Amino acid sequence: MRIRTVWAIVHRWAGLTIALFLIVAGLTGSLLAFNDDLETWSAPRLHRVAPPRPGAAMLDPQRLRGVVLARHPGGMIDYLPLRFATGRSVVLRVNRIDQRTGASVPWSSRWDELFVDPYSGRTLGHRTWGDISEGLVNLMPFIYRLHYSLALGPWGLLAFGVAALVWTLDCFVGFYLTLPVSWRRDHASAGRRAPKWSARWKPAWRVRWHGGKHRLNFDLHRAGGLWLWPLLLVFAWSGVSFNLAVVYEPVMRVFGYQRLQDGIVPLADPRYHPKLDFRAAERLGRAIARSEAARLGFTIDSTRDSGLLHRPDAGVYAYIFSSSADMRATGGRTVTIFDSDTGRPLKTVVPQGQSGAYAFTEWITAIHMADVGGLPWRIATAAVGLMVTGLSVTGALLWVRKRAARRISRTRHALRAARS
């Protein structure tokens, strides 16, 4: 069996194995490219707010946090957005300490997300993220769950990660199969001159629209995959980064990749009540960010996202802000981490300029999540999702036709053998 035939079989079965995953990921990804808009459309009462009067000011984030915690005795808010979007609610997660286990759990067993009016602190509603039984308010979160795990929890997450890894490897197999075969000896012995290699590869990039259904399917599958190949590889490998860190991180460490949490040692007992409260932590975080910006040579962008995260399990605060080093449209990817008791700075992570492997990861995940390039890239991402679905469908149709042809061939051979 020729090596090309072997790789063709590998490509065929790899594609069939992951076809369902890619169809689901493609269709749901096309919707998730417009997640914010669709969230507002499907759950307006949770997401939309109007100022009580023209020019009304929103509450200070720390004050809003205090108002919410006053309504939830024993509650903790470990992540606080420090910049509110005009016309949008603020989404918070309120936790409490489980007296039996000592672990942090949702404040209520009936919801894990709280939607608050930033002008008044009034509660707009709540939901359990991703629970489709709650109706339209959870439509987009449920689509998100389908996108990365088929809504099957940890096992679905792992299955999608394996599918992304197979897809990544199959990208290279598929690319190899588009390359022209070597100029055969019988052609040379017949005196035929070999065309240029590029001329023999050129048909792989074309779609013959009038060559019959099978030829059209084949050309759409081959040419579509070839034209989209760089993006397919980016979406596949970034999928591995999301779902299969056990593979992604060791591979990328070869190129100098470090995780955000590397060097932060978990505590034996969570520090739920640090010496630095949220207000003090915000002030210190801002000061450290300014100092680090001067040291590392970036500028702080106060017009985009920022927030403060408390990690009791590690005894740290993470001040998250936007900077000139962020490539994402929403920003909020530059982070400085400091001790939640002493305020001692521990590390600052910048999306670009420190580690090429980390910057690469930031780029491919931003592309995957349509968080670069504004509306044009969101439209392009939705189109790519539909094209991924199309490649999976055309690949499956090619397999069905080949399988039917083999069955017909076997039947004919059996009939001939019976007659003889």
UniProtKB/TrEMBL annotation:
The record's keywords, sorted A to Z, are: Membrane, Transmembrane, Transmembrane helix
Q: Name the domain of life.
A: Bacteria
**InterPro entries per the UniProt record, alphabetical:** PepSY-ass_TM
Q: Where are the transmembrane segments?
A: 12-34, 155-179, 226-248, 379-400
Pfam families on file? PepSY_TM
Instruction: Enumerate the PANTHER family for this protein.
Output: BLR4505 PROTEIN (PTHR34219:SF5), IRON-REGULATED INNER MEMBRANE PROTEIN-RELATED (PTHR34219)
Report what the protein is called: Peptidase
In its UniProt entry, the species of origin is given as Sphingomonas panacis
